[in-house]
Amino acid sequence: KSIIDEIKIEVARMDASIYVVPGLAVIFFFFNVRLAGLAVILVGDREDSASYVRNKKNACESVGIKSVDVCLPEDSSEEEVLKYVLSFNNDPSIYGILVQLPLPSKDVDGFHPFKMGLLAKRGCEPDFVPCTPKGCIEKRAVVIGRSNIVGMPVSLLLQNEDATVTTIHSKTKNPEEITREADILIAAAGRPNMVRGSWIKPGAVVIDVGINHVQDPNGSRLVGDVCHEEACKVASAITPVPGGVGPMTIAMLLSNTLTSAKRIQEFQ
Ligand code: NDP
């Protein structure tokens, strides 16, 4: 909340000083397209993607960042997607483009191979860090998962902070023995309730990145990779699912968009 509040103040300060409102672009076919600053391009009609885009739009609105959205059909050609990316690139009111399926251009989600390379190379800093890992960073950790989107950049960010980092992946034997050593445990495996209370060192800080849909007699609900009920009796602090890393990811997306606008406008 404090990050969102700070972004709101900065957006208002920019608007009052140089009459610039940063924007993000989202792409839907059947909605009116409004001019704005951060562009999100959504390909296909996956329900979870649609809800992420909705949350991003609402978050933009809450801080005064304008958003544009366009929804393309699942079978859109690369040329069609690129056409939108190019038009947002050429739109001076757009300071960031978020593509639900990543494409290399004004990519404030930070997945471009060049940005990933800068993150991995010691002594170099990428101009934007992927939004989910940026929301997780802390002093020392064991990271479950090594994907390009979460696990790998989280590990690199922690190393850049001089943390000693151990990565667990699907081929790791006895993961619970490793997690019990962790002062900070970051779970990003996409496996519901995989991390039990007994896997956690007493007093550890647990960041649960996992978002998993599970069915129970009351219908579908969201759970993380960590068994929250057990973990909160052992951990000193733990992020909930939903309502933890997800909103922090969105806060970081807004922060990256604001940074982009400030850089382009040379606004201090
Ligand atoms: P991927 O499926 O790309 O990667 C999963 C990683 O976890 C892989 O490295 C895999 O290992 C590892 N893994 C899978 N099963 C196990 C296991 N049983 N034991 C140990 N390691 C395992 O997923 P993502 O990284 O994209 O996402 C991870 C989770 O985070 C998902 O639930 C996703 O929904 C959520 N997420 C949440 C976000 C947020 O904003 N809160 C943003 C992005 C993702 P291997 O490499 O060997 O296959």
UniProtKB/TrEMBL annotation:
Flavoprotein among keywords: no
Oligomeric and partner information: Homodimer.
General function of this protein: Catalyzes the oxidation of 5,10-methylenetetrahydrofolate to 5,10-methenyltetrahydrofolate and then the hydrolysis of 5,10-methenyltetrahydrofolate to 10-formyltetrahydrofolate.
Source organism of the structure: Brassica carinata (Ethiopian mustard)
Domain Tetrahydrofolate dehydrogenase/cyclohydrolase catalytic: 34-106
Family: Belongs to the tetrahydrofolate dehydrogenase/cyclohydrolase family.
Ranges annotated as spanning the membrane: 18-44
Domain Tetrahydrofolate dehydrogenase/cyclohydrolase NAD(P)-binding, residue spans: 138-263
Catalytic activity: (6R)-5,10-methylene-5,6,7,8-tetrahydrofolate + NADP(+) = (6R)-5,10-methenyltetrahydrofolate + NADPH
Pathway this chain belongs to: One-carbon metabolism; tetrahydrofolate interconversion
Pfam families for this protein: THF_DHG_CYH, THF_DHG_CYH_C
Keyword list, A-Z: Hydrolase, Membrane, Multifunctional enzyme, NADP, One-carbon metabolism, Oxidoreductase, Photorespiration, Transmembrane, Transmembrane helix
GO BP annotation list: photorespiration; tetrahydrofolate interconversion
A single MF term (Gene Ontology): methylenetetrahydrofolate dehydrogenase (NADP+) activity
The name this protein goes by in its record: Methenyltetrahydrofolate cyclohydrolase
Gene Ontology cellular component terms for the protein in this record: cytosol
